[in-house]
Description:
The complex is a heterodimer of chains A (278) and B (328).
Chain A: H1 13-21, H2 31-48, H3 50-76, H4 79-111, H5 114-119, H6 127-153, H7 161-189, H8 193-209, H9 222-230, H10 232-245, H11 250-277
Chain B: E1 9-18, E2 21-31, E3 36-40, H1 47-54, E4 62-67, E5 70-71, H2 76-80, E6 83-86, H3 98-108, H4 113-126, H5 142-153, E7 160-164, H6 172-187, E8 191-196, H7 199-205, E9 208-213, E10 216-221, H8 223-229, E11 233-239, H9 245-255, E12 259-261, E13 267-272, H10 275-288, E14 292-298, H11 302-310
Parallel strand pairs in B: 3-8, 3-9, 6-7, 7-8
Antiparallel strand pairs in B: 1-2, 1-4, 4-5, 9-10, 11-13, 11-14, 12-13
Adenosine-5'-triphosphate binds at residues 18, 21, 23, 41, 43-49, 88, 197 of chain B.
Amino acid sequence: xxxxxxxxxxxxxxxxxxxxxxxxxxxxxxxxxxxxxxxxxxxxxxxxxxxxxxxxxxxxxxxxxxxxxxxxxxxxxxxxxxxxxxxxxxxxxxxxxxxxxxxxxxxxxxxxxxxxxxxxxxxxxxxxxxxxxxxxxxxxxxxxxxxxxxxxxxxxxxxxxxxxxxxxxxxxxxxxxxxxxxxxxxxxxxxxxxxxxxxxxxxxxxxxxxxxxxxxxxxxxxxxxxxxxxxxxxxxxxxxxxxxxxxxxxxxxxxxxxxxxxxxxxxxxxxxxxxxxx
Amino acid sequence: xxxxxxxxxxxxxxxxxxxxxxxxxxxxxxxxxxxxxxxxxxxxxxxxxxxxxxxxxxxxxxxxxxxxxxxxxxxxxxxxxxxxxxxxxxxxxxxxxxxxxxxxxxxxxxxxxxxxxxxxxxxxxxxxxxxxxxxxxxxxxxxxxxxxxxxxxxxxxxxxxxxxxxxxxxxxxxxxxxxxxxxxxxxxxxxxxxxxxxxxxxxxxxxxxxxxxxxxxxxxxxxxxxxxxxxxxxxxxxxxxxxxxxxxxxxxxxxxxxxxxxxxxxxxxxxxxxxxxxxxxxxxxxxxxxxxxxxxxxxxxxxxxxxxxxxxxxxxxxxxxxxxxxxx
Lengths: 278, 328
Ligand SMILES: Nc1ncnc2c1ncn2[C@@H]1O[C@H](COP(=O)(O)OP(=O)(O)OP(=O)(O)O)[C@@H](O)[C@H]1O
Ligand SMILES: [Mg+2]
């Protein structure tokens, strides 16, 4: 091992004895308190590893700048018209990218042996998984807020105002709760955090481009258009766009919520099963 | 529960297979409370798998085990409430600080916020990591990481602790710290199940040892019994004058035990049952006026234990201290 931050001062035997002798086992904490403790852990990670958040928020910001100023005029006639069209989709992209980290951090815990430690504790078993949602949701909100704020700085004004933007953000965050369990399952099955990251982005990247995030599918050839229309990311982007425009598309919103619930119903139990047996 | 003094660990016929690998092939263990019990074996012997079954992380495919009187499968929660696990990987969260790691464990075990913080500080101080308490663990040295890992396991003092290769990869100084901590735990009444590849470590800490190989226990006893069964160590002597080696060999053969000559023309080793006999041998040499450049009493290594017990060599390098000292 290299570079200790400080010289390891000796463990003091008398103090070690005192520390060992001094505890009585406290009563077990309840399930909610345990889950909240894991939530606190998730928040600490957001604080200590901001790079992780930077990576995923910068990519969509880059796309926002590139597409708006390079292609915006060509695609939508003017950059401001294009910004109006694409920002809700980029919000979706930004937050969905962040969900991959649910799997990445779970895999890190697994490969570092942290999962073993948690599983050897007398705690409510789903607590580590549920608690991590809290840290995750903070990440989602930050990622979404960043892209909206950058959009506003560039001149984007949602017709439905702040309320519309908040509603769209809330919808994407709820959808992400469902989707994150897919990556959690990957996190428990694959060998390394990097493998999870690669698999996650390999899945989500093409899906984002084969959606209506960047271009109006009406301009696409038939078969491609058919795919884009059923792509969940399109449906979610449509729902967000409608919320931000103040003309809620109830169908798209309901489908998004149902899909989120469906993903959670399948992949949450799978995650807990794998977590217990790995 | 039995009517006799209950064992801390009582395992019968534990089996775990992964595909066509049999990780553990029927292990029996009987560990009395209040001792360090060593499980000694080379890479892949099944040590970690055994610990994971006993610590309720995985279910045995066959056999059963009771830990502190509770069945590891049907009463897993009761087992978890009394044991703690220090795994082979120092399982601390690298993206948190040392203090946050300990506070987290304290909160999970039911301490109040203030209680968890106070406990964390007490442990950081005692384990000599107070100065780095606010640094992220990914910047810690291996020794600090291991100490933090052990501290995390005793945020609430467990009645039984699993220690899986706690000193592998540590320098001698850090290794001594870990041994000190283990001794302190036992002195306060905790039972320790210690997995190790080093006979020296088991010898230093353990009251009883089970040697395992390929998923089964191949020998059991106290460190002294085990070493005796191997024919113990050797008295290694290097003479000032190589000319007198035949004379010295004859003398040691009589006073100590069977002698092997070394490649070094002035070196020889006598098999030696105990240190008293070794002292006699050295004394005799001195009295006869045969000059000694240096002498040492070698411990038998895990290699020798394995060779003696199984007839095949273990696939681990012996600890550095005895690496160059094996007569061939
Ligand atoms: N999850 C697993 N999947 C497949 N094989 C496994 C798994 N865990 C252990 N094994 C295999 O079981 C055998 C015993 O492994 P185990 O980790 O228990 O050995 P060990 O004595 O702890 O070794 P080491 O000293 O290297 O830690 C090895 O052959 C290993 O490859
Ligand atoms: Mg092991």
